[in-house]
Amino acid sequence: MCSGSFARCLGITLIPLAILCVLCNILLFFPGGKPAAKNENITDEVWYFGGILGSGVLMIFPALVFLGMKNNDCCGCCGNESCGKRFAMFFSVIFAGVGLLGAGYSFIVSAAAINRGPKCLTLINGSYVYPFVDGNYLGNHTLWELCLEPSGIVTWHLTLFSMLLIMGLVQVVLCGFQVINGLIGTVCGDCCGCCGGGD
């Protein structure tokens, strides 16, 4: 497969992933599927915008660049018909790096949120606190009963942050592939040529 076509395939895959990450992060602002009475009742990691900023906005830019790689027509740059394509592939490596940073940020925030657990109302002092320590609730579902409100908050928290974690990891892998693909395209040029015959 040509480097430009491969980059386009990655872009097509990254767009829906970025949209899903934004939606997951937005849903986390509604603990247990209901509006929070106070902003302080929402888990801190939700406010870090890992899904909205990291895997969402910062991922849209690389995805759009990758989508345009196949049809990028840069023939005749400096009198060399392949140098334009090489520059475009190098440019995609930079954007892939941006995507790696964004997805990595989302992955780290999600992992921290899963380990810490949700913020919920408990009997400990009748206020919203973090009742779990170092992910101890992950293997012990009886601890979930410590959270009285919002209803189903542990499942809600764990499901959405796990989705962000997995999608962030997939985005890291895809952007990593484009870094390699872009470097190969920069050094070797597009295997299908730039003019005549297409990508």
Automatic annotation (TrEMBL):
It is a multi-pass membrane protein. It holds the Pfam family L6_membrane. GO terms for cellular component: membrane. The chain crosses the membrane at residues 12-31, 46-67, 87-108, 153-174. One of its GO terms (biological process) is negative regulation of pancreatic A cell differentiation. It is found in: Membrane. InterPro entries: L6_membrane (IPR008661). Keywords: Membrane, Transmembrane, Transmembrane helix. Belongs to the L6 tetraspanin family. This is Transmembrane 4 L six family member 4. It comes from Pygocentrus nattereri (Red-bellied piranha). The gene is TM4SF4.
